Amino acid sequence: MNRNSIQRKPPSRLLLATLAVAITLGLSAAWTAVAVITGSLAAWMALVAAVDAAVLLRVAGHRPGMARAAAGLSITLATIACSAVLVAAARIGQELGMRPVAALDRISAEMVPMWLAAQLGPTDLAWLAAGAVLAFLGSR
After folding, report:
1. For 59-71, how does the pLDDT look when each residue is reduced to its tens digit (9 = 90+)?
2. Over the chain, what is the mean pLDDT?
3. Has residue 96 got a pLDDT over 80?
4. Closest alpha carbon to 134 in 52, 16, 67, 61
5. pLDDT confidence of 6, banded at 50, 70, 90?
6. By three-state DSSP, how is residue 59 classified?
7. How distant, in Å, are the alpha carbons of 15, 86, 105, 131 from that of 90?
8. What is the pLDDT of residue 105?
9. In angstroms, what CA-CA distances link 78 with 49, 64, 120?
10. Are 17 and 74 in contact (CB under 8 A)?
11. Residue (of 74, 82, 24, 76) closest to 46 by Cα position
12. CA 56 – CA 13 distance, rounded (Å)
């Protein structure tokens, strides 16, 4: 049988959802570790998140097109949001003398946006925007 004549079945939605959650949580943990170690927000990690999402969607067999681009963008934005909460909690916890993860359940939902607004600069915002654009274009 000719190798080109075999029709590959597209991955299931459950597989793609599981992959998206795994990408988001795994990279958010790595992003938080980098931010804690470097003492910065490590916003450049948005580019890593974008490349990670694009590559893993391709490897998982998701069909090219706008759906894959939207999935890559969604995964990257979810990773950015999750990482923002984790980094804020870790840094706030450090400032209060707590372990980075211990502060996660002690901070309020209002504290994270306030802390991020005070910490995010134009360069950080540019990195985050570049990550979103790279995720969309790289996932197509």
Report:
1. 888 889 999 999 9
2. 87
3. yes
4. 52
5. low
6. helix
7. 31, 6, 11, 22
8. 82
9. 10, 21, 18
10. no
11. 76
12. 15
**58: burial class by Cβ within 10 Å (0-12, 13-18, 19+)?**
middle
What span, in angstroms and rounded, lies between the C-alpha atoms of 4 and 19? 27
Residue owning tokens 């999935």: 71
How far apart CA 20 and CA 25 sit, in angstroms, is 9
Query: DSSP letters along 60-92, please?
Result: TTPPSSHHHHHHHHHHHHHHHHHHHHHHHHHHH
pLDDT band at 15 (very low <50, low <70, confident <90, very high): confident
pLDDT of residue 10: 65
CA distance 112 to 2: 56
Structure tokens that stand for 133 in this block: 């654009």
Structure tokens at 95: 């400032």
Residue count of the chain = 140
Residues 137 and 128: their CA atoms lie apart, in Å, by: 14
Taking 3-state DSSP, the helix, strand and coil percentages for the chain, each rounded to the nearest 5, stand at: 70, 0, 30
